[in-house]
Design a protein that fits this description.
Elements: E1 11-15, H1 19-30, E2 34-38, H2 42-50, E3 68-71, H3 84-91, E4 95-97, H4 99-106, E5 111-116, H5 121-134, E6 138-143, E7 162-167, H6 170-174, E8 183-186, H7 194-197, H8 200-208, E9 219-223, H9 227-239, E10 243-248, E11 257-260, E12 263-266, E13 273-277, H10 287-302, H11 307-316, E14 325-330, E15 333-337, H12 344-351, E16 357-362, E17 364-365, E18 380-386, H13 390-397, E19 403-407, H14 409-421, E20 429-432, E21 436-437, H15 445-457, E22 463-464, H16 480-483
Parallel strand pairs: 1-2, 1-3, 3-4, 5-7, 5-8, 6-7, 8-9, 9-10, 10-11, 15-20, 16-18, 16-20, 18-19
Antiparallel strand pairs: 11-12, 12-13, 14-15, 14-22, 17-21
Helix pairs in contact: 5-10, 5-11, 10-11, 14-15
Length: 487
């Protein structure tokens, strides 16, 4: 745990006592700060009290004694309107920051690598962290990935040799004021969380703060696969402040890093060298994962990791749980757990990655329904619909794709397995990529994915490990002529 020494013997308010808020309060208590913790939820307050965390009602306290409010990123800062506690803090001229800001103030001498984007940031963060750690680097990985920043190990004594690899949400970026990222990655942008940022312009502005204060040799790694990021790349180039490496999972990028047809190319030295066959790893299927791998490669190389070591890390990357996670091959049918695809854009990326898909979708639908996922229905052989969204999703795909109203996940898995085994196509895939939140039937997407994996494990038939037999898993086959050119 990080010692937050700048607040020793000083009063500091903490509002929001979820996972990151509790971790923040614990770290501050252990650092002998005068902690004023509060949450609107009574159960959250009770849990904090049980841990010995001091509680102070922030609606009825003397804000003149405070200089800092540490806010949980899930609490509205500006839109649709500031939370009342935020309003009280601003009225008292109290700074409002997040836990990652506390990390930055407490561990100043380290290297910081930040990753953001609408999609792919968790995979890229986990992949980059894996590369750094397998290369023997002292690297701690966390942030929005699910590991609260202040629970990471201190690296201050290592100086620049110690690296924090942090997934940064737009909410966290708004609460982080002093960290200048040595390497900042922006993968992509599409409409998301607009209510929290007052529209697309506010969302883009929040994401762009990952590049604030960067000057050469600090580096911006930026994807070119959407128009918003291409415009930001042009803006950064025009300013000439930092080094820029462009990446793509769809096109050649002169001077950058890119993936084409599953092959990763490094053109940072103007040689367009094929360096890695991504299709050898079933966890990196699809062009979106090509972009993720390109970004991780560019960041690791910038951080001084040798290219052959980076490639080794990419090839051994085990994947992110619940994100296009290869589960098993059962009687020739591939099962993929993409429970983390809680919106249409994330589901569309998975649908674009395989050919003969038996798709399990549904849950608690978000605004826009299936949205962009509708553009990839040509890859779907049959859909098995579950949860509250089953009926509206059936209306959306009626006449385009055969479907079954399965209702529950256990029914859908059995029906999809039966349908996939009878599919005349080679290498069918049963893909759980719900395009929905999970809360109608599960406590969270992790619970939904765990149940899916348990159901697959219980299926009768011959089970093969996709990592031991990668050539049999859909999306991992590459023509021999291409393989021969890969270093």
């Amino acid at each position: 745990m990080i010692e937050v020494f700048p607040f020793t013997n000083s009063p500091v308010a903490v509002f929001g006592l979820g996972q990151s808020g509790l971790a923040t309060a614990r770290a501050l208590v252990q650092s002998n700060a005068d902690v004023w913790a509060w949450d609107d939820n009574e159960d959250a307050r009770a849990q904090a009290a049980d841990e010995g965390i001091p509680l102070v009602d922030l609606y009825n306290c003397d804000w003149r004694e405070l200089t800092t409010l540490v806010l949980s990123p899930g609490v509205p800062l500006r839109h649709p309107k500031p939370h009342p506690v935020v309003t009280l803090a601003h009225a008292a001229n109290c700074e409002v920051i997040g836990d990652i800001e506390l990390l930055g103030r407490s561990q100043r001498e380290c290297t910081y690598i930040g990753i953001t984007g609408t999609n792919g940031k968790s995979t890229t963060t986990a992949l980059l962290g894996h590369i750094m750690q397998t290369a023997g680097r002292e690297a701690q990985v966390g942030g929005n990935l699910g590991v609260p920043a202040l629970t990471l190990e201190p690296l201050g004594g290592l100086g620049p040799k110690g690296s924090y690899v942090l997934e940064m949400s737009s909410y966290q970026l708004e609460l982080t004021t002093s960290i200048t990222f040595d390497v900042a990655i922006l993968l992509n942008l599409s409409a998301d969380h607009l209510e929290r940022h007052g529209g697309m312009d506010g969302y883009i502005a929040a994401k762009k703060t990952i590049f604030h204060r960067q000057t050469s040799p600090r580096t911006a790694v930026i994807g070119l696969d959407d128009p918003y990021c291409r415009a930001i790349a042009d803006e950064l180039k025009a300013s000439g402040e930092q080094e820029i490496i462009a990446v793509s999972g769809e096109r050649e990028v002169p001077g950058g890093v890119y993936a084409l047809d599953g092959i990763l190319f490094d053109d940072t030295e103007n040689s367009a060298t094929p360096v890695c066959n991504l299709r050898e790893n079933p966890s990196l299927t699809g062009s979106h994962n090509g972009q993720n791998a390109a970004a991780a490669y560019a960041a690791a190389k910038t951080a001084g990791v040798a290219p052959h070591v980076i490639v080794s890390g990419i090839q051994s990357y085990p994947g992110l749980e619940h994100r296009q996670e290869p589960v098993a091959l059962v009687d020739g049918v591939a099962f993929v757990n993409d429970s983390k695809a809680t919106n249409a854009d994330a589901a569309a990326r998975a649908l674009a990655s395989y050919e003969a898909i038996h798709w399990i979708a549904g849950g608690l639908a978000k605004d826009g329904g299936l949205g962009i996922a509708m553009q990839h229905l040509d890859h779907v052989r049959h859909a098995y619909l579950i949860g509250e969204a089953a009926l509206p999703f059936s209306h959306a795909i009626d006449g385009k794709v055969p479907f079954t109203l399965s209702g529950t996940l256990d029914t859908a898995v059995g029906e999809a397995f039966k349908g996939a085994k009878g599919d005349v196509a080679s290498r069918p895939v049963v893909l759980l990529s719900p395009a929905c939140a999970s809360f109608d039937q599960f406590s969270n997407f992790e619970a939904r994915g765990d149940v899916f994996k348990d159901l697959v494990e219980a299926l009768p038939g011959t089970h093969l490990d996709p990592y031991e037999e990668p050539g049999l898993f859909p999306g991992t086959d590459v023509p021999v002529a291409v393989q021969e050119g890969v270093a």
